Amino acid sequence: MNQSASTASRWIGVGSSRKTDPVQAATEATQAALLGTDPKLVVVFCAISFPLERLVGQVGALTRGVPMIGCTTAGEITTNSAHDDSLTVCILGGDFTATTGVAVSASDDLHAAGSTAAALESSERPHEVLMLLTDGLAGNQQEVVHGAYAQIGAGIRLVGGCAGDGAAMAKTYQFHDGRVFENAVVSALIGSDSPIGIGVQHGWRPKGEPMLVGRSQGTTVFELDGRRALDVYLERAAVPLDLGRDEETFTNFAMTHPLGLHRGGGEEVRFINGADFDSGALNGIAEIPQGSLVWLMEGDRASVLEGTRASCEHALGELDDHDPIGLLLFDCIARRMVLGDAGVEAEMASIGAVFPPVATAGFYTYGEIARTSGVRGFHNQTLVTLAFS
Amino acid sequence: MYSASELPEFLAAVSSATNPQVALARGVAQMAGTFDAEVVAIIKGDEVLASIGYPKGKEPTTDLLAAAQRRSGTIKVPGSGLATASTFDLVDSSCTVVIARADLPLTSVELGHAQAMGRILELALRLMDKLTENERLLEEHRAHEAVLEAILRIQQLISQRQPVETILQAITTEAVVLLDADLAGVALHTQSGPAHGSLGTVTDEGRQLGTELASREILQAGLEATLSSPGVPTSITLETPMGEGKRAQITGVPVFDDGNPVGGLFVVSAGPSLPDVQIDTATMETFASQASIALTDASTMDELEHAFHDHLTGLPNRALFQDRFNHALELGVRRNTTTGLLFLDLDRFKTVNDTFGHSAGDVLLREVGDALRQICRACDSVARLGGDEFALVLEDCHPKTALIVANKLLANLADVTNPTRAADGTGVSIGIALSEPGCESVDELMRRADIAMYAAKAGGRGKAVLYKPSMGQTRLDHNAAANALRRALERDEFVVHYQPIVDLRTRQILSVEALVRWMDPEKGLVPPGAFIDDAEETDLIVPIGRRVLEIACEQAARWRRDTPGASDLQLSVNVSARQLWHDGFRRDVQDLTADAGLDPSALTLEVTESIFLNDADSAGERLRDLKSLGLRLAIDDFGTGFSSLSYIHNYPFDVLKIDRAFVSGLGTSENSGAVVRTMLALAQQLSLVSIAEGIENPSELAQLRALRCGQGQGFLFSKPTTAENLERMLGNRRKTSVPNSPVGL
């Protein structure tokens, strides 16, 4: 299948395949996405179930010499639908510019990895965006964003997401120029003469009074309001403390009950992905700093879909009346879990309600990146919409 | 919005850095993060020590140095154009900090916080310098570490929004220990009178000072030292009550509230070893900036609280409510859900105030506020709009839900507004308005809810009423009108005039229609049009109507009994919808006719089509119920409303009254009489007596006769007139018909 759009000088093609054979899948999706003779950037999102070397190698072989980045996911998004165990290939061509980078062994120094990946030469086009695909399991991803920001400054906005692995949360992979990496940050600096829009929206609302983070280290919170963080969290959520004894029950619950963090640029959502039942600590995947104020957040299908709509409308608004020709979506896995299968369809429909039919690619992430103003840009449980015109 | 809670985070980030360069890099990144500023730079001399926001290696050094020197102005932010740069100095390390944010410049409060961060950064840098410089300074290292820990503790109190007194107390206690003084204090100016503030001590010497001297004097000395020579130790002699002078050294540095100097943080050292005392002014300033943050934060919170909450009930005030309501409406529009607004008004609240005093009124308002808070879901917004008016927003609200909530409120508030409190009992009336496409503005919904609330009051108080367009556009000044009408009732100022209804063929008076007038001692005779609407809305129509019925029944009975030839005279009385719905109405009719000795069959009650507006079935039941008394029913003003023919067809009417609008100009080219003809045919088919209203000239009469209309009334025969005049006309009844010229008024 394929969906495409182009203006006189730029084009974006998206192809998808659900074939299990890596060569067949790569061929089907790449050919569908390759709409012109002048491709500039290949973006690959695929399930972790594929033999990755062969899959990515085949995409690379079919687009030889064209810069490529990509990653494994927790669900692949293609025009109008989302799947597991599939491959989505998106190709930007024509009058786009693109350069790519990769930083390996990211967990050794996430800040440095962000800086390395962002050390790309600007095309000096009027509209530029840096896309980062990272390993969300490698530590505090805000550091990656900070590192990238410290490298390229405020002039270029950042978008992207953390790679996934179904929902196993064990190991993710990043792709660069036909090769497969782990624990890496891959990047693409995309330039255009026509506006690029970014929308960022979660879909959660604060519940109850704020709590003070008494003691925390990185992504782990030990104390809230001077007591064991887990106890206070469960109390505030008004659920039995028993819930804090079973790992699976707790994780499922926490998935839809993130913490809201008050930040200079507004409110950010912090996903809680586990707890230490003995020490009473809560584990997140982004930093929850000591001394900060947090809220318990709640959401439902309606609020998540409301977030989708707002994210898309904002991105569309930034195109300044230019026609959109393609979308890249970085959508949180937790939002997908709240929505369920039927809800994912509803989400695709609400994207379709905002945008005219355009080539769409994306994936369900373990964390989202969008720095549009200020310096922060790592998000949780959020939909980041990147729209090209 | 910036939160003071981010300072501990900053502290943790910079104090854990392993070398000055990392600390500086983290410092600028943290500051940028805290204030969401794109650019932060630290400049020393002509060198940019650290910066963030520019592509690495392409920092515009000249621009940054210029901005640092200019101390204000603009600077280019990549991707955003020019932005206002805020700058401040770190005196201790001769550095300047430049912060630029694209959307808005830093506020004075934010700048204060940034300066506090700068101080912490300086402290951390100094600590590192010393660490690398010499191992001997380990002791000092610990001291500085202790300062950072103390600041963290203070910051936690600020984050928890502890009372400002508690925070200042903590600051002075921490300061006295870490500055190795005998006594520390925060002294604040007052508008008039002596300084006030907080004192802390841990040493015996300090305690002794505290006992010997009034704290006010110490605070005053601290304030003076701060003002006269900030940061410089001053020797003073404190006079004790025992008359002996005590030598002490006092040092103060200023504290600020929202950028304005409001006093000082000072330390006092006393005792024999005085000359050796060394004061670490940098640390003092660090504590002073903590005090400034606490004061600024407290006044900001105070202002916020004051600006958006009602002092009496603690509920959001009108300003905050409108904001929340607006938000709820916008959300409703986006989600395509209905937003409900409930207006609550205490009934007879004025009586409570007048009878029991304003403090009793305040207690009642507070209790109502508490009750509302308890009843409402967390996501509903409750507010006191002022006076005795409260409001409640219901998100995603079905009309039925709104009524259920309103009725629950009525039930629960009944306890609060219990009659034991006020002799005649207060209650609550609720008006409800729901958003709908085209009506999604705060103002319009508030207007509608207000109108509905008055409709609830008019409907008998203690009720909840949903807004309907038929309720009209404006709310009148009901209170004044209601009071006047109530007084008129008490003074029996309502009188009844009568208009004859005649046989159109013979002009003989068959019946009289009773019409109410108000004989106002000041204004004279007031026509019904001037007061009936108010009477309806205030529910006073019920007692007024009863009085009219009473007078008219007595009069008609007297005429039938005493006036020759009038023994079969009929009486027509108008009944408003509100009277009809009043539960005692049938009983009133029964009693009044019986008391007057009027045969019910001589009475016709006239109702308009509006009685079928709300609940046609129940209206029919009420009519049949009345009819069972043996009286007759007329449908008045027929054809003017929204009636369908089914009303007369299905209900037990005896008389159809054709409105003057159809009669006027009969026989002229504009009015061919087609409508009247149809009505008459209808009446005939249903065996109804038809009465034409508003007959004003002979040609109309001629036409009606030609159309075989049986009865009529109008100025041609007589205007409504007094009982005396009518009695005279009745005297002539048998002899002649009603005279051509109007009689009476």
What topology does this entry show?
The complex is a heterodimer of chains A (389) and B (745).
Chain A: E1 2-6, E2 10-17, H1 22-33, E3 39-46, H2 52-62, E4 68-72, E5 76-78, E6 81-83, E7 87-94, E8 97-103, H3 110-118, E9 127-134, H4 141-152, E10 157-162, E11 173-176, E12 179-182, E13 185-192, E14 196-201, E15 205-217, E16 220-224, E17 227-228, H5 229-236, H6 247-255, E18 259-263, E19 266-270, E20 272-276, E21 281-284, E22 293-298, H7 301-317, E23 326-332, H8 333-354, E24 359-365, E25 368-371, E26 378-379, E27 383-388
Parallel strand pairs in A: 3-4, 9-10, 23-24
Antiparallel strand pairs in A: 1-2, 2-7, 3-7, 4-11, 5-6, 5-24, 8-13, 9-13, 10-25, 11-12, 14-27, 15-16, 15-22, 16-17, 16-21, 18-19, 18-22, 20-21, 23-27, 25-26
Helix pairs in contact in A: 1-2, 3-4, 7-8
Chain B: H1 6-15, H2 20-35, E1 39-44, E2 47-52, H3 61-70, E3 74-77, E4 81-90, E5 95-100, H4 108-133, H5 138-159, H6 164-178, E6 183-188, E7 196-200, H7 204-212, H8 215-228, E8 234-239, E9 245-257, E10 260-270, H9 281-308, H10 318-335, E11 340-347, H11 349-356, H12 358-375, E12 381-386, E13 389-394, H13 399-416, E14 427-434, H14 442-458, E15 464-466, H15 478-490, E16 494-503, E17 509-520, E18 524-526, H16 532-537, H17 541-562, E19 570-574, H18 577-581, H19 585-596, E20 603-607, H20 616-627, E21 632-638, H21 645-650, E22 655-658, H22 660-663, H23 674-685, E23 689-692, H24 698-706, E24 711-712, H25 723-731
Parallel strand pairs in B: 14-15, 17-19, 19-20, 20-21, 21-22, 22-23, 23-24
Antiparallel strand pairs in B: 1-2, 1-5, 3-4, 4-5, 6-7, 6-10, 8-9, 9-10, 11-13, 11-14, 12-13, 16-17, 16-24, 17-18
